[in-house]
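Subgroup meeting minutes
Present: P.N., E.W., G.H.
Scribe: E.W.

1. P.N. recapped why we're keeping a running log of single-chain structure predictions: easier to compare across weeks, and new members can see raw inputs and outputs side by side.
2. G.H. added today's entry (379 aa).
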Amino acid sequence: MKTSRITAAALLLLFCLFLTACGGKTSGSPAPSPAASEAPAAEAAPSAAPEEAVAQEEPAQEEPAAPEAVGESAEEPGVVAEPDASMPVRVMTLNGTTGFGLAGLIAESNAGNTAQNYSFTVETDASNITAALVNGSCDIAALPTNAASALYNKTEGGVQVLALNTRGVLYVLSDGTVPVESFADLNGQTVYVPAQNPSFIFGFLCSANDISVSIDNTYAQPAELNAAVATGQVHLAVLPEPMVTVACSQNSDLQIVLDLTEEWDRVAEPGSLVQGCVVVRTEFAKEHPEEVLAFLKDYEASVALLTDDPAAAAQKIEETGIFAKAAVAQKAIPHCNICFVTGAEMQAQLSTFLEIMAETVPQSIGGAVPGPDFYCILQ
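Output recorded in log:
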Protein backbone atom coordinates (compact mmCIF):
# COMPACT_ATOMS: atom_id res chain seq x y z
CA MET A 1 0.00 0.00 0.00
CA LYS A 2 2.88 2.23 0.88
CA THR A 3 4.56 1.37 -2.41
CA SER A 4 1.38 2.14 -4.32
CA ARG A 5 1.20 5.59 -2.74
CA ILE A 6 4.83 6.33 -3.66
CA THR A 7 4.24 5.20 -7.21
CA ALA A 8 1.12 7.33 -7.45
CA ALA A 9 2.97 10.37 -6.12
CA ALA A 10 5.75 9.88 -8.61
CA LEU A 11 3.31 9.62 -11.48
CA LEU A 12 1.54 12.78 -10.29
CA LEU A 13 4.87 14.65 -10.19
CA LEU A 14 5.77 13.53 -13.70
CA PHE A 15 2.32 14.59 -14.93
CA CYS A 16 2.79 18.08 -13.43
CA LEU A 17 6.18 18.44 -15.03
CA PHE A 18 4.72 17.41 -18.36
CA LEU A 19 1.96 20.03 -18.10
CA THR A 20 4.51 22.74 -17.22
CA ALA A 21 6.64 21.89 -20.24
CA CYS A 22 3.62 21.95 -22.56
CA GLY A 23 2.50 25.31 -21.12
CA GLY A 24 5.95 26.86 -21.87
CA LYS A 25 5.75 25.78 -25.49
CA THR A 26 2.20 27.09 -25.95
CA SER A 27 2.54 30.48 -24.29
CA GLY A 28 5.90 31.66 -25.86
CA SER A 29 7.29 32.13 -29.37
CA PRO A 30 8.68 29.09 -31.08
CA ALA A 31 12.31 28.53 -30.17
CA PRO A 32 14.61 29.59 -32.97
CA SER A 33 16.67 27.01 -34.76
CA PRO A 34 20.44 27.35 -34.55
CA ALA A 35 20.49 28.77 -38.08
CA ALA A 36 17.78 31.27 -37.24
CA SER A 37 19.58 32.39 -34.08
CA GLU A 38 22.66 33.25 -36.16
CA ALA A 39 20.68 35.33 -38.68
CA PRO A 40 20.26 38.43 -36.52
CA ALA A 41 23.98 38.48 -35.89
CA ALA A 42 24.58 38.26 -39.62
CA GLU A 43 22.07 41.05 -40.22
CA ALA A 44 23.67 43.21 -37.53
CA ALA A 45 27.10 42.89 -39.08
CA PRO A 46 26.44 45.27 -42.00
CA SER A 47 25.27 48.04 -39.65
CA ALA A 48 28.39 47.65 -37.54
CA ALA A 49 30.75 47.46 -40.53
CA PRO A 50 30.36 51.08 -41.71
CA GLU A 51 31.21 52.33 -38.23
CA GLU A 52 34.34 50.24 -38.21
CA ALA A 53 35.22 51.47 -41.72
CA VAL A 54 34.82 55.08 -40.68
CA ALA A 55 37.02 54.50 -37.68
CA GLN A 56 39.66 52.88 -39.87
CA GLU A 57 39.50 55.59 -42.56
CA GLU A 58 39.69 58.58 -40.23
CA PRO A 59 43.52 58.65 -40.10
CA ALA A 60 43.68 58.46 -43.93
CA GLN A 61 41.30 61.41 -44.19
CA GLU A 62 43.71 63.68 -42.31
CA GLU A 63 45.56 65.78 -44.91
CA PRO A 64 49.34 65.85 -44.53
CA ALA A 65 50.95 69.18 -43.70
CA ALA A 66 51.67 71.20 -46.84
CA PRO A 67 55.37 71.50 -47.65
CA GLU A 68 56.85 74.86 -46.73
CA ALA A 69 56.94 77.08 -49.80
CA VAL A 70 60.20 78.73 -50.75
CA GLY A 71 60.28 82.16 -49.23
CA GLU A 72 57.33 81.49 -46.92
CA SER A 73 57.30 81.60 -43.14
CA ALA A 74 57.17 78.21 -41.41
CA GLU A 75 55.05 79.73 -38.65
CA GLU A 76 52.56 81.31 -41.04
CA PRO A 77 52.34 79.33 -44.28
CA GLY A 78 51.51 81.51 -47.25
CA VAL A 79 53.19 84.57 -45.73
CA VAL A 80 56.39 85.56 -47.55
CA ALA A 81 59.29 85.48 -45.11
CA GLU A 82 61.25 88.68 -44.58
CA PRO A 83 64.97 88.65 -45.40
CA ASP A 84 67.33 88.30 -42.47
CA ALA A 85 68.72 91.81 -42.01
CA SER A 86 71.60 90.55 -39.88
CA MET A 87 72.91 87.99 -42.36
CA PRO A 88 75.90 89.19 -44.43
CA VAL A 89 75.34 89.29 -48.20
CA ARG A 90 78.77 89.46 -49.86
CA VAL A 91 78.78 91.11 -53.29
CA MET A 92 81.70 91.61 -55.70
CA THR A 93 81.86 93.49 -58.97
CA LEU A 94 84.29 94.12 -61.76
CA ASN A 95 85.14 97.79 -62.21
CA GLY A 96 84.02 99.65 -65.33
CA THR A 97 80.64 99.34 -67.02
CA THR A 98 79.93 95.92 -65.49
CA GLY A 99 79.76 97.60 -62.10
CA PHE A 100 78.10 100.91 -63.07
CA GLY A 101 74.63 99.70 -62.08
CA LEU A 102 75.79 98.75 -58.58
CA ALA A 103 77.23 102.15 -57.70
CA GLY A 104 74.01 103.53 -56.22
CA LEU A 105 73.44 100.45 -54.07
CA ILE A 106 77.04 100.43 -52.83
CA ALA A 107 76.75 104.10 -51.87
CA GLU A 108 73.48 103.49 -50.03
CA SER A 109 74.98 100.54 -48.18
CA ASN A 110 78.05 102.55 -47.18
CA ALA A 111 75.70 105.22 -45.79
CA GLY A 112 73.80 102.61 -43.77
CA ASN A 113 70.59 103.10 -45.73
CA THR A 114 69.97 99.51 -46.84
CA ALA A 115 67.84 96.94 -45.03
CA GLN A 116 70.25 94.13 -45.85
CA ASN A 117 73.71 93.66 -44.39
CA TYR A 118 75.75 94.06 -47.58
CA SER A 119 79.50 93.99 -48.02
CA PHE A 120 80.88 95.09 -51.41
CA THR A 121 84.23 94.57 -53.12
CA VAL A 122 85.29 96.17 -56.42
CA GLU A 123 87.88 94.21 -58.42
CA THR A 124 89.91 94.96 -61.54
CA ASP A 125 90.47 91.28 -62.40
CA ALA A 126 87.52 88.94 -63.07
CA SER A 127 89.59 85.91 -62.00
CA ASN A 128 89.61 87.18 -58.41
CA ILE A 129 85.82 87.24 -58.44
CA THR A 130 85.43 83.78 -59.95
CA ALA A 131 87.86 82.39 -57.37
CA ALA A 132 85.80 83.92 -54.55
CA LEU A 133 82.60 82.41 -55.94
CA VAL A 134 84.27 79.00 -56.10
CA ASN A 135 85.63 79.09 -52.53
CA GLY A 136 82.37 80.49 -51.13
CA SER A 137 83.71 83.85 -49.92
CA CYS A 138 81.39 85.70 -52.33
CA ASP A 139 77.63 85.23 -52.70
CA ILE A 140 76.66 87.52 -55.60
CA ALA A 141 78.84 89.04 -58.31
CA ALA A 142 78.77 91.17 -61.47
CA LEU A 143 80.76 89.48 -64.25
CA PRO A 144 81.15 89.32 -68.02
CA THR A 145 78.63 86.88 -69.47
CA ASN A 146 81.25 84.57 -70.96
CA ALA A 147 83.02 84.33 -67.60
CA ALA A 148 79.73 83.44 -65.90
CA SER A 149 79.12 80.63 -68.40
CA ALA A 150 82.65 79.29 -68.07
CA LEU A 151 82.31 79.28 -64.28
CA TYR A 152 78.99 77.41 -64.46
CA ASN A 153 80.64 74.72 -66.56
CA LYS A 154 83.73 74.57 -64.35
CA THR A 155 81.71 74.19 -61.14
CA GLU A 156 79.06 71.93 -62.72
CA GLY A 157 76.23 74.31 -61.97
CA GLY A 158 77.72 76.07 -58.95
CA VAL A 159 76.55 79.51 -60.12
CA GLN A 160 73.38 80.88 -61.69
CA VAL A 161 72.55 84.09 -63.53
CA LEU A 162 70.20 86.49 -61.74
CA ALA A 163 70.07 89.37 -64.21
CA LEU A 164 71.63 90.89 -67.29
CA ASN A 165 73.23 94.25 -66.57
CA THR A 166 75.12 95.31 -69.70
CA ARG A 167 74.37 94.98 -73.39
CA GLY A 168 76.93 95.93 -76.04
CA VAL A 169 79.57 98.49 -75.03
CA LEU A 170 82.15 97.96 -77.78
CA TYR A 171 83.14 100.48 -80.46
CA VAL A 172 85.76 100.63 -83.21
CA LEU A 173 87.97 103.72 -82.98
CA SER A 174 90.14 105.13 -85.75
CA ASP A 175 92.46 108.12 -85.84
CA GLY A 176 91.85 108.53 -89.57
CA THR A 177 94.98 106.70 -90.68
CA VAL A 178 92.72 103.91 -91.90
CA PRO A 179 89.42 105.24 -93.31
CA VAL A 180 86.51 103.11 -92.08
CA GLU A 181 82.91 103.60 -93.11
CA SER A 182 81.67 100.02 -92.93
CA PHE A 183 82.74 96.66 -91.58
CA ALA A 184 84.05 95.70 -95.02
CA ASP A 185 86.68 98.45 -94.74
CA LEU A 186 88.37 96.46 -91.96
CA ASN A 187 89.24 93.64 -94.36
CA GLY A 188 92.99 92.97 -94.34
CA GLN A 189 93.64 95.36 -91.44
CA THR A 190 95.20 94.78 -88.04
CA VAL A 191 92.82 95.74 -85.25
CA TYR A 192 93.91 95.91 -81.62
CA VAL A 193 91.35 94.41 -79.28
CA PRO A 194 91.36 93.69 -75.51
CA ALA A 195 91.49 90.01 -74.62
CA GLN A 196 88.52 87.81 -73.69
CA ASN A 197 84.95 88.94 -74.41
CA PRO A 198 85.81 91.89 -76.73
CA SER A 199 88.00 89.65 -78.89
CA PHE A 200 85.42 86.86 -79.00
CA ILE A 201 82.64 89.24 -80.04
CA PHE A 202 84.73 91.08 -82.62
CA GLY A 203 85.98 87.78 -84.06
CA PHE A 204 82.40 86.58 -84.56
CA LEU A 205 81.47 89.82 -86.34
CA CYS A 206 84.46 89.52 -88.67
CA SER A 207 83.44 85.98 -89.55
CA ALA A 208 79.78 86.94 -90.00
CA ASN A 209 80.83 89.72 -92.38
CA ASP A 210 83.16 87.35 -94.24
CA ILE A 211 86.28 89.47 -93.85
CA SER A 212 89.83 88.65 -92.80
CA VAL A 213 91.16 90.73 -89.93
CA SER A 214 94.28 90.29 -87.81
CA ILE A 215 93.16 90.62 -84.16
CA ASP A 216 96.04 91.78 -81.97
CA ASN A 217 95.79 91.25 -78.18
CA THR A 218 99.11 92.92 -77.33
CA TYR A 219 97.23 95.28 -75.03
CA ALA A 220 95.12 92.72 -73.17
CA GLN A 221 93.48 95.12 -70.73
CA PRO A 222 91.20 97.96 -71.92
CA ALA A 223 93.15 100.54 -69.89
CA GLU A 224 96.43 99.50 -71.56
CA LEU A 225 94.93 99.70 -75.04
CA ASN A 226 93.32 103.03 -74.20
CA ALA A 227 96.75 104.50 -73.40
CA ALA A 228 98.20 103.19 -76.67
CA VAL A 229 95.32 104.61 -78.71
CA ALA A 230 95.35 107.97 -76.93
CA THR A 231 99.08 108.43 -77.59
CA GLY A 232 98.85 107.45 -81.27
CA GLN A 233 100.73 104.13 -80.99
CA VAL A 234 97.61 102.31 -82.23
CA HIS A 235 95.53 103.61 -85.14
CA LEU A 236 92.64 101.14 -85.21
CA ALA A 237 91.19 99.56 -82.09
CA VAL A 238 88.14 98.09 -80.39
CA LEU A 239 87.46 99.62 -76.98
CA PRO A 240 84.61 99.42 -74.46
CA GLU A 241 83.00 102.39 -72.82
CA PRO A 242 84.00 104.31 -70.74
CA MET A 243 87.48 103.87 -72.24
CA VAL A 244 86.13 105.16 -75.55
CA THR A 245 85.19 108.45 -73.91
CA VAL A 246 88.58 108.64 -72.17
CA ALA A 247 90.56 107.98 -75.35
CA CYS A 248 88.58 110.48 -77.44
CA SER A 249 89.06 113.17 -74.79
CA GLN A 250 92.84 112.63 -74.95
CA ASN A 251 93.25 112.38 -78.72
CA SER A 252 91.14 114.70 -80.87
CA ASP A 253 91.91 112.67 -84.01
CA LEU A 254 90.02 109.65 -82.69
CA GLN A 255 86.51 108.94 -83.89
CA ILE A 256 83.98 106.18 -83.36
CA VAL A 257 83.68 104.56 -86.78
CA LEU A 258 81.61 101.48 -85.87
CA ASP A 259 79.14 100.67 -83.09
CA LEU A 260 79.54 96.92 -82.61
CA THR A 261 76.09 96.59 -81.02
CA GLU A 262 74.53 97.88 -84.23
CA GLU A 263 76.79 95.57 -86.26
CA TRP A 264 75.74 92.62 -84.11
CA ASP A 265 72.05 93.33 -84.63
CA ARG A 266 72.62 93.23 -88.40
CA VAL A 267 73.94 89.65 -88.39
CA ALA A 268 72.36 88.10 -85.28
CA GLU A 269 69.17 88.23 -83.22
CA PRO A 270 68.68 91.91 -82.29
CA GLY A 271 69.21 92.53 -78.59
CA SER A 272 71.18 89.31 -78.03
CA LEU A 273 74.56 91.00 -77.56
CA VAL A 274 74.77 90.90 -73.76
CA GLN A 275 78.20 91.44 -72.21
CA GLY A 276 77.56 91.72 -68.48
CA CYS A 277 75.45 89.94 -65.89
CA VAL A 278 74.96 89.33 -62.18
CA VAL A 279 75.40 85.81 -60.84
CA VAL A 280 74.69 84.09 -57.53
CA ARG A 281 76.12 80.98 -55.96
CA THR A 282 73.52 78.26 -56.55
CA GLU A 283 73.73 77.08 -52.94
CA PHE A 284 73.18 80.61 -51.63
CA ALA A 285 70.14 81.12 -53.87
CA LYS A 286 68.55 77.88 -52.63
CA GLU A 287 69.21 78.58 -48.96
CA HIS A 288 68.43 82.32 -48.96
CA PRO A 289 65.83 83.15 -51.66
CA GLU A 290 64.39 86.03 -49.61
CA GLU A 291 67.77 87.75 -49.41
CA VAL A 292 68.37 87.22 -53.14
CA LEU A 293 64.97 88.72 -54.02
CA ALA A 294 65.66 91.68 -51.76
CA PHE A 295 69.00 92.21 -53.49
CA LEU A 296 67.35 92.19 -56.92
CA LYS A 297 64.89 94.88 -55.83
CA ASP A 298 67.72 97.01 -54.44
CA TYR A 299 69.79 96.45 -57.57
CA GLU A 300 66.94 97.38 -59.92
CA ALA A 301 66.52 100.70 -58.10
CA SER A 302 70.28 101.26 -58.31
CA VAL A 303 70.32 100.68 -62.08
CA ALA A 304 67.39 103.07 -62.53
CA LEU A 305 69.51 105.87 -61.04
CA LEU A 306 71.72 105.79 -64.13
CA THR A 307 68.88 106.93 -66.37
CA ASP A 308 66.96 108.98 -63.81
CA ASP A 309 69.94 111.05 -62.67
CA PRO A 310 73.17 110.34 -64.62
CA ALA A 311 75.07 113.11 -62.84
CA ALA A 312 74.31 111.70 -59.38
CA ALA A 313 75.01 108.17 -60.60
CA ALA A 314 78.37 109.24 -62.05
CA GLN A 315 79.34 110.80 -58.75
CA LYS A 316 78.56 107.56 -56.94
CA ILE A 317 80.52 105.60 -59.57
CA GLU A 318 83.59 107.63 -58.70
CA GLU A 319 82.99 107.53 -54.92
CA THR A 320 82.68 103.76 -54.89
CA GLY A 321 85.82 103.14 -56.96
CA ILE A 322 84.04 101.64 -59.95
CA PHE A 323 85.53 104.28 -62.23
CA ALA A 324 88.01 107.04 -61.50
CA LYS A 325 86.34 110.14 -62.94
CA ALA A 326 82.70 111.11 -62.50
CA ALA A 327 82.75 113.56 -65.42
CA VAL A 328 83.92 110.86 -67.85
CA ALA A 329 81.44 108.34 -66.44
CA GLN A 330 78.58 110.79 -66.93
CA LYS A 331 79.49 111.32 -70.60
CA ALA A 332 79.87 107.57 -71.13
CA ILE A 333 76.64 106.41 -69.43
CA PRO A 334 74.35 106.99 -72.46
CA HIS A 335 76.61 104.73 -74.57
CA CYS A 336 77.08 101.96 -72.01
CA ASN A 337 73.74 100.23 -72.61
CA ILE A 338 73.29 99.42 -68.93
CA CYS A 339 70.18 97.31 -68.34
CA PHE A 340 68.29 95.25 -65.78
CA VAL A 341 66.77 92.16 -67.37
CA THR A 342 65.53 89.12 -65.45
CA GLY A 343 63.28 86.09 -65.93
CA ALA A 344 62.38 84.57 -69.28
CA GLU A 345 63.64 87.58 -71.24
CA MET A 346 67.04 87.24 -69.59
CA GLN A 347 67.18 83.55 -70.46
CA ALA A 348 66.16 84.08 -74.09
CA GLN A 349 68.72 86.83 -74.75
CA LEU A 350 71.64 85.25 -72.93
CA SER A 351 71.07 81.75 -74.29
CA THR A 352 71.10 83.16 -77.85
CA PHE A 353 74.39 84.95 -77.19
CA LEU A 354 75.98 81.85 -75.65
CA GLU A 355 74.82 79.64 -78.52
CA ILE A 356 76.57 81.99 -80.96
CA MET A 357 79.73 81.94 -78.88
CA ALA A 358 79.59 78.14 -78.66
CA GLU A 359 79.57 77.91 -82.45
CA THR A 360 82.49 80.29 -82.93
CA VAL A 361 84.73 80.13 -79.82
CA PRO A 362 83.34 77.42 -77.49
CA GLN A 363 86.29 77.74 -75.11
CA SER A 364 85.17 81.31 -74.38
CA ILE A 365 82.09 80.05 -72.51
CA GLY A 366 83.63 76.97 -70.92
CA GLY A 367 83.12 74.56 -73.82
CA ALA A 368 79.34 74.18 -73.80
CA VAL A 369 76.11 76.14 -73.57
CA PRO A 370 74.83 75.96 -69.96
CA GLY A 371 71.61 74.10 -69.23
CA PRO A 372 68.30 75.65 -68.14
CA ASP A 373 69.39 75.52 -64.48
CA PHE A 374 71.93 78.25 -65.31
CA TYR A 375 69.08 80.76 -65.03
CA CYS A 376 67.86 81.67 -61.55
CA ILE A 377 64.28 82.88 -61.96
CA LEU A 378 62.78 83.73 -58.58
CA GLN A 379 59.10 84.57 -58.03
